[in-house]
């Protein structure tokens, strides 16, 4: 199986979730290449222009006598349309990456599914620690440490404020530093054990 590009992965994801009967893909594929690219150019030009004029409607409050509720509704509609336009552009160009390379899309989908099943069987998913690059593992560990620290700080401050507890700034800083130290030691021990087990699995 050839390496699947990011655009092709997006095309497969969209097909599996929305375009299950390949109606959109076949509609684009059946078009003449010149008509197809003309449609792409037309969409790429008209979409930003339409979004610009719609944004002017939202921004120019003085021109339109709108209530706050109507204005918020209009902003929400504008945001939804903007997201839909952005997503549709990604989908169209991802489908085009499949079409222009003369790839059998149904075969590509089946091969991709088989590859996913194989990875699951062999436990080679990218999110597993043993399959991650060392850099990404370190980022994951640091992120977990940072989240726990921030959660503790927030909880400590919330308890002090909500219960009107008189605590000096120095005492609070000492409590935070003490917890940070304990957490760091525990994390280092756990990470060392995890990395050791990970190393043993790789050797096997």
Structure, described:
With 204 residues, the protein is an all-alpha fold. It folds into 2 domains: 6-122; 129-203, no CATH class. It is built from 7 helices and no strands. The chain has helices spanning 6-17, 23-29, 33-59, 68-100, 105-122, 134-162, 169-203.
Short structural description:
The protein has 204 residues and is mainly alpha-helical. It has 7 helices and no strands.
Number of domains: 2
C-alpha termini separation? 27 Å
Question: Largest sheet, described in full?
Answer: none
Order of helices and strands: HHHHHHH
Please count the beta strands (DSSP E, at least 2 residues each).
Answer: 0
Q: What is the 3D shape?
A: flat
What amount of the residues lies in strands? under 5%
Mean pLDDT: 76
Number of helices: 7
Helix content: over 70%
Unreliable stretches: none
* SSE-based structural type: mainly alpha
Radius of gyration, in Å, reads 27 Å
């Amino acid at each position: 199986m050839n390496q699947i590009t990011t655009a092709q992965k997006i095309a497969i994801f969209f097909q599996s979730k929305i375009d299950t009967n390949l109606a959109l893909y076949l509609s684009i594929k059946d078009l003449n290449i010149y008509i197809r690219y003309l449609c792409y150019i037309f969409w790429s030009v008209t979409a930003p222009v339409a979004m610009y004029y719609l944004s002017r409607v939202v921004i120019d409050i003085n021109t339109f006598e709108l209530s706050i509720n109507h204005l918020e509704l209009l902003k929400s509609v504008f945001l939804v349309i903007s997201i839909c336009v952005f997503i549709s552009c990604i989908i169209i160009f991802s489908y085009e990456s499949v079409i222009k390379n003369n790839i059998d899309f149904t075969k590509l989908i089946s091969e991709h599914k088989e590859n996913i099943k194989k990875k699951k069987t062999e436990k080679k998913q990218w999110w597993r620690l043993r399959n991650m690059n060392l850099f990404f593992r370190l980022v994951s560990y640091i992120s977990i440490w940072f989240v726990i620290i921030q959660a503790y700080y927030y909880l400590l401050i919330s308890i002090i404020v909500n219960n009107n507890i008189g605590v000096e700034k120095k005492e609070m800083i000492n409590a935070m530093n003490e917890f940070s130290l304990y957490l760091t030691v525990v994390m280092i021990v756990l990470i060392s054990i995890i990395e050791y087990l990970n190393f043993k699995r790789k050797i096997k």
